[in-house]
## 1
Amino acid sequence: MEYILILAAVVVIIIIVALIIAFIIDSIRKKLIREILKELSLERIEEEVLNPKEYDERVVVKSRQALYNYTDVKFFKDNDSFDRVRVITEVRKSIASRLYSFLQKNDFEKRVQYKKAKRQINSYIQRIYNYRVLVVYITPAGNNRGEIYLNISSKRVDEMVAHPEFLMTKGELNKLIKEQEKSALEAKKHSLYDRVNSIIDFANSSKDTLIVKSQAETLDVLVQKLFDKTVNSIQKVSKISSDEWVMLENFITSIDNQVKEIVKNDKMISDYYASEEFSKIKETCSLLTQSQREFNEYINEKAQSIIQLFGTRTVRNETLHEDVYNYIRTYKKSITPFTAEVSSAVFGSAENSPISYIIKYFYPNKSQYPVQIEKLRLLIEELETLKEAKIIIDNYKKDYNQYIQNVPDYVLKNDEDGFYSRLGLAIIDESVLNVEYKFIYTSDGGMARRSFTVPMNEENITELILQLESKLSLEALAKEQRALMTTKLRNHIKERDNYTCCQCGNSVSAEPNLLLEIDHIVPVSKGGLTQEDNLQTLCWKCNRNKGAKLLFQQD
């Protein structure tokens, strides 16, 4: 009996010691956890974050079907608690992240009871990761017939933030869909406007630096097409699902590629002109260039004469459309100096009677008619001279070809005139020969745009002169009335003089590429008339020398 009592006492002592040890160990663990939570500024996590009931909210339903069909969406809709739960889950997510990061590496890892403390912290992470809703089915009699838990994670809350339609009524959802479609439509439009503006900016910045100046007009044409196809078309598309978007995007891409190709080719040509290879060709052709220097200078003088008679092309900013939303930036386009923007009615009348409307819009001052008539007469002569000179220049190119080898195809294909011009050969710009008047009609909304040009060829210039003369008084008309230097008359005088210069005796039979001109023996400025007995054939050198002498005499 005594032995049993002793054994029982020993067991009690062991149990007491074990309890004391367990208490001490638990105290060490709790102290360690408190230190960790203090380190993380989470001392009150048990009170403020973790619910001792193991759930955050309790919901009662009235049927078993309602219990099993209950979802987080219904919970949010019925309780209008989404914003509150969202804030709570965000806070908990942040706390869980801090706890998780702490467990990866910290200064407490070597402390006694750290492993148990770590398990405790992991349990915190698991408990605070979700917002827990207890759904209970209680009968009218107060009996608990079942319960389920809804675990709403921060990820699920983020999903609902990204898709607010989950919590909307049908009416709210329809309204949201319309707003989203409208927003997507506007975003689509502006994305295309941005692409159009990018092309315009690139064309504007590249245009003035082009080596091949004729390509500037190609850029104008491409940007014109871009405006015509996009400015109003983009705004008119009413649905984000419309097939028109694909067509517009393909068209914009096509224009973009063409514009970039022009600039790319121009850069290649520029690099070639700066190369040693081209320098050698230029040096080889220097003697030929020197022999034609005076002729080249004379042709350039003639080209400048036409520019002075008719004006130079100017640059203005234009979108070519009324863009009421100011989405499209302006584009610098070269235009003829004689451009009239008119109403629809005037445009139709001008198409039917172009010369009359040229006078109305571009020759408003009747007192200037005599001077303008004289300039137009001279314009006919200068244009004819340059057209003949252009044929001769094409023949001169053949002389250069014997010195030219291994010129890249892209140079001659895209800039033949520029190539020969850099070798020293006179080049006549087609834009100088293609003088024109232009009429433009643009509707008020910019939806329609029409234009037509009246080329100043010999026939139209002659008609313009005749109509200007018809508006002069009889006295003024008597002073101005004289025959025009027509192509027929020019050819007749050359044939009469056997295609020979009446001053130096040089002829096309001796020099096939000789440029012959028709000269007024008594200058028009001194009262000379355009008739056979006052006309003679001169080569360009003699005509140039005569002009210089007359200028000297006037001085």
Note: Residues 485-555 form one domain.
## 2
Amino acid sequence: MAETLDGLKVRIRELEKEVERWKSQVKSVRYGLNWMDVPEAFDKDSEDKIPILEEVAEKAVDAEGPLTGKPPHVIIEGDNYHALTCLNYTHRGKIDVIYIDPPYNTGSDGFTYKDKRFLTEFPDGQKVPKEHPLRHSYWLSFMEKRLKLAKNLLSDKGVIFLSIGDDEQANLELLCNRIFGETNRIENYIWESTFRPDNSSPILRRNAEFILCYAKNYKKISYFKGVKSNTEGMPSLTKAKEKLKVISFPAGSVHTLLQNGTYKKGIKDNGRNLKWELVNDVEVKDGIILSELVLKGHSYWATKEKITQELNDGTEIWIKSEAFVPYYKKTKESINRPTKILDKEIVNDYIFSNAELKNIFSETTFSNPKPSTLVSFIADFTDNSSATILDFFAGSGTTLHATLNLNKEDDGNRQCILVQQAEGDNNICENVTYERNRRVMCGYTSISAQGKQTEVEGLGGSLKYYKTGFVGKHQSKNANDADKVELAEKAGCLIALAENTLETIKVPKAAKGFWQIYSDNAEKKKRYTCIYHNGDYGKVSDFVAKIDELRAIDKKSKFMVYVFSWNSPDFFENEFDDLKNIEIKAIPKPILEIYKALNG
């Protein structure tokens, strides 16, 4: 029976109310990760102040060996939030690969969180046990702030890898989807972390961990390097789900098992439903198709660009029979993309990593570091032997060790930046992170369990050590002129890092408090960073004279001149009229404004 008009009106009003209710929910309830944001407390002296980096000159390493003359590596001791804040000035958009191994938040791994609300009750922060109601909220609040800063550091083609265990893997993936974008997710890799899993559980023997991978911009990632392939197999280009396509191969580019002669165009019978059509007549001589080969079939190679790329990469195209089915063969120098489950023979496990570290120190200094082979594999995913690599949960320093090994293997120029807190009475950063890599670079004596000593030669190279610090007597929002002057003076390390000129040039004692000069470690065509940071310009002429002195040593050197001035940088240009290869930059406002923004 048809509804009455009044009945229909009532249904319409009810449906309208239902639609409005759903609209309201769509606006307020979104799919994704939600948690109670817990404000993090920092030391009272550092909260809301301007962070800077200060070099610890006595810890610099300059070792002879195969890696001498390579770009210098950097270790930063301090809270990684403050270090990332500094790097957001010096390395924004410059990092190619980030690898981190954050606390897994297992409830027994010692993860500590300084809750701003309860700092009076827990002045040193509190360890977060498994049953804590805010356990996941603490961890997510901690990670979110750091990953947002890390994202800014990635280059357009940059990628980030995050090691994680079962406890937070799902949460971390949702958090990364929010920060980096779900479309920039590359993969959740699995690696066999122990070949001898714990047998204490009656339910499961856990022997694997995860490595999440995200791109800054997925569309700009052409491919991952993966591993070299030695396969001799020849897969067919036929794929039933693909539409019929016409593909062509240049004359002389296709190998064949056919006898010499001319082969006429037409549909070829291969005994299967998916037949290929030879579009043109072709001539074969001595195992090569001399003519251009044009085929029509269900192929997943669709474009001329794809075929050109494959041929340029060394891929061989084969026709085995008169069915004219095309096959391809990767040569021994071609590459396979990394699979989701990483090959255990390549990445190794914790047993290997513990032995590797103990071999360097002759004692146990750090439990279960990541294997250097695993991190080498990750750092080399993108085929870039000059990559800048960052690890801001550095732990025992495996990432730098892996970078040194990679540079030795392929004569690369990768540069590594590590960040690690002091942590505890033993100061992990100084006594493990730094000391491990100092020994690898300078050489060390390995002592076996039986007491046998073996001398291990160093790889060479250079290393700079910095600590996070803070400038000024006031919070950033209330910084006065004195704070700004102090910032300008202490900004030298930051500006030198930004320009990748980390060698301090000795200047006259009279220059102290007025100017600083840094250079890179190139033998010729050096790059210099020159900073005049005092509001008193009475020593500018001495500053210019020193630059001219350095320029006379190698006239092809380049000079970046930063001037602390409220005036335009043009104000100083006349001071350098007679000198070439000089670019003048102003420093006070950019640094101060960036730090104000980063610290809210």
Note: The CA atoms of residues 114 and 243 lie 59 Å apart.
## 3
Amino acid sequence: MMDQTTWNFIFIGITFGVYITIAIWSRAASTKEYYTASGSVSPFANGMATAADWMSAATFISMAGGIAAAGYGASKFLMGWTGGFVLLTTLMVPYLRKFGKATIPDFIGDRYYSNAARLVAVICAIFICMTYIMGQMRGVGIVFSRLFDIEIWMGVIIGAGIVFFYAGLGGMKGITYTQVAQYCVMVFAYTIPVFFISLIITGNAIPQLGLIGNYIRDGAENSVPLIEKINQISTDLGFSKYTENTSNTLDLFCITAALMVGTAGLPHVIVRFFTVKNVKAVRKSAYWTLSFIAIIYLTAPALGMFARTNFIEEINEKKYQEAPEWFKNWENQGMIAWVDKNGDGIMQYRSGDVFTGKPSYDDSSRKVDSPRVVNNEISKSENEVYYDKDIIVLANPEMAGLPQWVIALVMAGCVAAALSTAAGLLLVLSTAISHDLMKKIINPDISDQQEIRYARIASFGALAAAAYFGINPPSSFVAKTVAFAFGLAASSFFPTLIMGIFSKKINKEGAIAGMICGIGFTMSYIIYFQFLTDSKEYWLGISPEGIGFVGMFINFIIAYLVSTQTSPPPSEVQEMVENIRIPKGAGKASGH
């Protein structure tokens, strides 16, 4: 009988073989294929590829972990990301696709008739994508560390090498068809375990129905509503009710809104819609994308609740020597820790932090038969168990005792999620530097082959930087790191694109000032509270994850005020803006 490691190697090996074969088969031979796959992708395939690009490590690994830990409070991810995609597909991509440019900086440079605006957009794209991709690299590192029993930093390096191979080689053409395969892996990896677990816990194989069904593990005669069960377990252990909002309502709103408008400003998602033939195909592609995303997003709440139930039942009030194998496996990776505060040898999972700071360990403690030695100060709370929220999806099949092939499938799905988004981000970074910076600003005379060469060099540099921050992330929680990227996109690209499409009055001076002030304010706020102070005394209680929503308003206001005090855009630019918004054969656009 095969062991878990063998199953892991089989699934990872097969999926990687498919990705690399597709990359070689679809290698880009021109800049048009490298940037937009020559606009030849079908709406169905592009919908699947966009869904894979969208469902990053933050969605696959962290979203359910956040739901398991925070309950109602994690609804910000579901509402923000889903609502943002609707905003993106209705207000942005049809018009941008009609404009016909390959990148966001390209649109901004032409719409605002300025290479200075293009340069600011390039810098914004680099900041956004670098922040986003470091979260993906962190996710890859976590998966590989568990797969191969290696350190997280080694897993990050392996993942970076794989992404560079198929993204740098195939460009948008290679990435698109690789992401179709990755979506198929992801959707099966995410949903199949939840079907099994829902059947075990509630007797219903449909997770969404199991979520609102009865908890039957203690026997049908003792069944109670699952939501009632998890609320009771949570309050018994000192937590608030799972269905209760315990966070600052204003902060919850701002984070949700920042995720929403940030989604509509993400360059690696917007550029996916440039790969189809025309605006009509864009709308069909958006329909398919939302359909494919819905499959996973409607499953995530059930997965989070099932995982929380399993985690508590598997480890709480259990002797450490009798801890399940998965607990000790993740402990070896530094993702779980237990501190015996009362000396009884029993693990107590309660509300509160285990440590005053982040957990750290002596090398001598890397054994599965004895508790780790914690090097920093112990918290005074009764809680003795620490776990990283990013392991919930990975560990969930092991907690539920599912077959080894299911566990291996989940590992392959997590890798696919992180790699698919990392590849899309890498393409945006490389094209921003090669096309928008080198070709459009520095040296317009370079050939197509030189442009692609610069793109591949930029890919290598960007991945090296992303790997460093994947190993040393600003937050150990992948979804939190990614949320910063959404804040940067919300405060820079979203207002500039919206005003560029729907207003003829906003000029280049306004756009440049708005982008600089919006992203400058947001980045300063994030850096101050994330790196320069331990204070949690946020302005009006708005956390760094939500401050991008405020930065968005700063962008809008500054852009408008500066535009009113400077020369209006040229008449040909105003005519171009009007033409973007109307279909062929229609009358003139109304409004200003």
Note: The beta strands are 214-215, 224-225, 318-319, 336-338, 346-347, 385-387.
## 4
Amino acid sequence: MVVTVIADRRHGTEPGLSSARSHSISPDRILNSRAPRPRWSWPPTVDAVAADLLTAALGVPRPVANLLVRRGYDTPERAERFLQPNLDALIDPFRMRDMEIAVARVEQAIAAGEPIAVYGDYDVDGITATALLVRYLRWRGANASYYIPHRLEEGYGVSLEGMRALVERGVKLVVTCDCGVTAVEEVRAAREAGMDVIVSDHHEPGPELPAAVAILNPKRVDSGYPDLNLAAVGVAFKLCEALERSAGRNRDKLWFALDLVALGTVADLVPVTGENRALIHYGLDVLGRTRNPGLKALLERTELAGQRPSSWQVGFVLAPRINAIGRMDAAERGVALLLTDEPDEANSIADELERINTTRQETDRQLLDEALKILDESYDPERDRAIVLAGDEWHPGVIGIVASRIVERFHRPTIVISIDRDGTGRGSARSVAGFHLLNALRECEQHLDAYGGHRHAAGLAIRRESISRFRDAFLGVARDQIAPEQLVPSLTIDAAVRLEEVDARLYLALARFGPFGPGNPEPVLAIGGVAPRGYPRIVGDNHLKMIVAGDGRTLDTIGFNLGHLLEEMDLNRGTLTIACRLRENDFQGRSTLQGRVIDVQPDTAGEPAHG
């Protein structure tokens, strides 16, 4: 089992809960460690007749037709609907339970001039949902304000403190965004204080629903809504859509808000399927030419200004800048950025977010270094099937990021806990495929003050004196439920091709599978029978750069953070297969195809060469 170590910045790092150790471990092995090489999962054969039909009907290359069939788009009609998302196919918002009630109550508040408050969450999904709804309500002439809890002072979700603050403002109607479906006590208190509450959320409901005027949540057992995967900003959009319908208008005026919808939906890592796929697809178009001063200011501080960003760029370049404000400070500034119509104010807040994001990056790097040093004293990959770390006064805003990075490095479920001066611990947990994190925490709940989340990520509250017992219980669950093969990452190959098939036509056809994300990953190609032309080299910060040749063709490739593969490749023993994604690389005004390498293996295992 893993030794839980309490890291105390005031007194150095000490094995505060246990100092048992099976053997000494070289620090260099941990600090320079990397995730195990992935196990490749090769694509299954497909129905050749269905693939032939798609090739003929759609004019796509055969590997693309095979991939469409594998992903369930096995007829020309299904494939066309997938490849060309359509906003006209959005689901009627009134199919969601309580939507009519919610619309009637909001319309009543607008007509009477009642103060309305949107109660959001501090992550990107909650911030964009709040901004979207407040913008819409104000456009309708409503007296609308907002409230975002402070992550470090209030924690997640609707709080009694927050509800009291809204009572003092004279608010009569509260609409939650990205929270509230489990706030039974808080909603009861609000109603007793004379406020009505509409819950707009997308999280799993608890055993008891709050006594709200309406609860809009596609995950309600009785919601009646066919798409369960909307983000919170998607649910807020459906409420706006229903309000427009009730006012006798079509949805055209709402398309301007799809930039916020795309940003929040991508950032929350919900499946990019169904309605989400259409909302993101068109939202990225709107984001590329956004009229929102706050988003424009933020884009100008990245390399994304003036272009249609990809979902990857939104998730890893734009969203972290907004997320940082909620992790490190008051997330209300993020909402202010997205609500302002003044360019000067937008630029000022965007500069503030840039500074805070830089601080966030420095903080999580420092905490990751500290965590790795603790693992030097305790971690044994042959023994440990999970990792639990705790530290005094670790910044709770970045422990989730650090947990994710430890999972990437060691491929073990990981929990990182920050302990306050009063002994209260707040933890963030991240998992690996096949290990249901929330269920595992449920088996250890006797040691926890609170917990919540889902299969892949969760949060918890715990007292310092309970951490050791919790650690033993959690690691026991991991030991019982995680098979050795689950500790090795899997790389799914979507198509095995020869280099002669890799051209602009293939790239453009694969690009139509976007936007990419959970439920719709970017296709991975295995290109076999290639050999490096010249000698591969390391560029930048440990990036593997090489040109591969085969079938009379060449392809420029780069593998970010894969410099270590150069030591492992035997360039004198035949050809290679590279696993990569295709990208367009612009350099000095010239655009060429580039393979973004994920892994490399020798052509010796007899895997399929085509398909």
Note: The domain at 48-80+493-602 is CATH 2.40.50.460 (OB fold (Dihydrolipoamide Acetyltransferase, E2P)).
